[in-house]
Design a protein that fits this description.
The protein is α+β, with helices and mostly antiparallel strands. The chain is built from 25 helices and 16 strands.
């Protein structure tokens, strides 16, 4: 890449007013020959940041950041040296000249500059049309209904394209732009029956800018459904490359650099809503396809990237792709768990910024996200399905450093979802890491059997736990009269899978003949009900056995809730659960005495 001449760079440096430049980021007050203010690079209450206009330097005595005007732009805007020089040259009207530029390269540069001027004119025209025309009244109403203020719409230069055939292109041609230039900029097109007109008509226009704020293309939203695609973007051309584009990056870079965090969403209005709520370090990928080039731009903007994409399958897959890309970069990727069917703009409008801040605070690491996704898609209603889920989760958990709170929490979550002791998950991890041993060396507990946390973790613990749940439901089928008091106390929290919970509800509604009342269209429920019905012919129906089975499930429920309360440091709930646990244990001892 050709270098700018030193003379060009020196002219830019001489033109800079560092007090004006820095004053746009933080309020400055003159103290003698210097200016002081709150540091834009870290949070502080007492000013420790100073600017020396004579030397054109800044320094913070609090965090140690310092440099010249170009360095200030690099740090606050997330740009490299060349991009900072170009931004400042644009700002102060200085023409940058390249060293040893050949005529062909100079012609390409001038052509590109002309197209970008055309795109900037188009953005200005669309913006004026949104605010001044009667035709755009519906667009203004739509944006207002989305809760977007005039200030944020103007900050992002949102506009509206006239529905007339050639309003924009006709004006541009009168000003000397050719049809070829309008096509190259993605603004004009030839009609099917001849003629030449506007590429965007009757749409809300979102300018797509580069990191310096220069318009490269447009994203356009149709107001009337059924009159073409809902969203239409500028086609790939010599100026606009979709795979590199991040909507709002030019306004997000500064806040993202200061917070060392950037939030990634899917849509234009999500960015606008978050910016308006004060979360200015946010960008949109305009869909769910995240590219390597976009990830590189995100990594340049901040070393912590928060993905707040839709909770649907496409959004989940996009986050997994991002995780793989982030693995090769020095960034921390966090996944925001979005509510099903809601986007950030809707959350901000309905619940306020505090709720979205809470989602950011609860964002998951990549291993946590991947483990939760494994568990969400696994069949946890069978022992085989749970074993398979644990097999998939093990290598993911193993990527989290040992003896850390993050790993302990992840192990607890897996244990709770699989409804097994945490020691079972830990032992499984240890055995995965350890070299294989001969079968004869298996450690045994007293009496020759495996101790509670020893030996190979296989299907037995999970099968036993699921079996206890199915046995209790089988007793309810075998003798509804004796089982009725326990069925009434049984809740979804006592059971570990959806089909078993649905069977419990069916038994509560039709205790005498639940099989006859099976609804159609639920093969999982039908399969589980058939198996439990077969068990009902073999299980004992004595009252003491049914009571024992319920108490065992109740103790497991309390233990799960206790682990959750400990993890969230909910001391009041812990006290209540410990008391409840003691009561259930006492009752269990009493029943065991009766059974013996």
């Amino acid at each position: 890449m050709a270098l700018y001449t030193q003379e060009s760079i020196d002219r830019v440096k001489l033109a800079i007013d560092i007090v004006e430049l820095v004053g746009a980021r933080t309020e400055l007050r003159r103290v003698g020959t210097r200016f002081t203010g709150l540091c834009p690079f870290h949070d502080e209450r007492t000013p420790s940041f100073g600017v020396n206009p004579e030397l054109s330097l800044f320094h913070c005595f609090g965090c140690g950041e310092s440099g010249d005007a170009i360095g200030f732009v690099q740090k606050t805007e997330g740009l490299d040296f060349r991009e900072s020089i170009e931004l400042l040259a644009d700002r102060y009207g200085i023409e940058l000249k390249l060293e040893n530029e050949d005529p062909a390269e100079e012609e390409r540069r001038r052509h590109r500059a002309r197209l970008m001027t055309l795109l900037d004119r188009a953005a200005e025209y669309y913006s004026r049309y949104l605010w001044d025309s009667d035709e755009a009244a519906r667009a203004r109403a739509y944006l207002s209904e989305r809760g977007l203020s005039d200030d944020v719409l103007r900050a992002y230069r949102v506009g509206f394209s006239p529905s007339a055939w050639d309003k924009l292109t006709g004006g541009a041609r009168r000003d000397g732009y050719s049809e070829q230039e309008l096509v190259a900029a993605g603004l004009g097109k030839s009609g099917r029956q001849g003629g030449f007109g506007d590429g965007f008509r009757g749409r809300i226009m979102f300018p797509l800018a580069d990191p310096r704020g220069r318009v490269l293309g447009f994203g356009a939203r149709m107001l009337d459904e059924g009159r073409g695609p809902k969203y239409l973007n500028t086609s790939q051309n010599e100026i606009y490359h979709k795979g590199r584009q991040l909507f709002g990056l030019h306004l997000a870079r500064g806040p993202a650099a200061k917070e060392a965090r950037i939030v990634v969403v899917e849509g234009y209005t999500d960015v606008l809503a978050l910016h308006q709520a004060g979360l200015e370090g946010c960008v949109a990928i305009m869909g769910t396809s995240l590219t390597e080039e976009q990830m590189a731009e995100l990594a340049r903007a901040a070393n912590r990237i928060y993905l707040a994409l839709d909770a649907d399958k496409a959004g989940q897959n996009a986050m997994l792709r991002a995780a793989r890309m982030a693995g090769s970069r020095d960034v921390e990727l966090r996944v925001v768990t979005m509510p099903e069917g809601r986007d950030p703009a809707e959350i901000i409008a309905a619940d306020g910024r505090e709720v979205f801040d809470g989602l950011l605070a609860d964002a998951l690491s990549v291993p946590e996200f991947e483990v939760r996704r494994v568990l969400a898609t696994a069949d946890l209603s069978t022992a085989r399905g749970r074993d398979h889920a644990l097999e998939l989760a093990r290598p993911l958990i193993a990527t989290v450093p040992e003896r850390t709170a993050s790993r302990d929490e992840l192990v607890r979550h897996v244990a709770d979802r699989l409804d097994v002791p945490t020691s079972y998950v830990v032992t499984s991890l240890d055995r995965q890491r350890a070299p294989a041993r001969p079968a004869a060396s298996t450690t045994r507990g007293p009496g020759g059997g495996h101790g509670p946390d020893q030996g190979a973790p296989g299907s037995a613990p999970i099968e036993a736990l699921i079996g206890a749940e199915r046995d209790l439901l089988a007793m309810c089928i075998a003798d509804p009269r004796i089982a009725a008091p326990y069925l009434a106390k049984l809740t979804d929290d006592h059971l570990s899978s959806g089909p078993l919970r649905r069977l419990r509800a069916l038994l509560a509604e039709c205790p005498d003949d639940p099989i006859a009342a099976l609804p159609s269209g639920d093969p999982e429920l039908a399969a589980v009900a058939g198996e439990v019905a077969m068990r009902s012919e073999e299980v004992p129906t004595e009252g003491v056995v049914i009571r024992l089975g319920f108490l065992q499930l109740d103790l497991r429920r309390i233990d799960r809730e206790l682990r959750a309360a400990v993890a969230t440091r909910d001391h009041a709930t812990q006290r209540e659960l410990w008391a409840e646990r003691e009561s259930v244990r006492n009752e269990l001892e009493e029943v065991m005495g009766q059974a013996s």
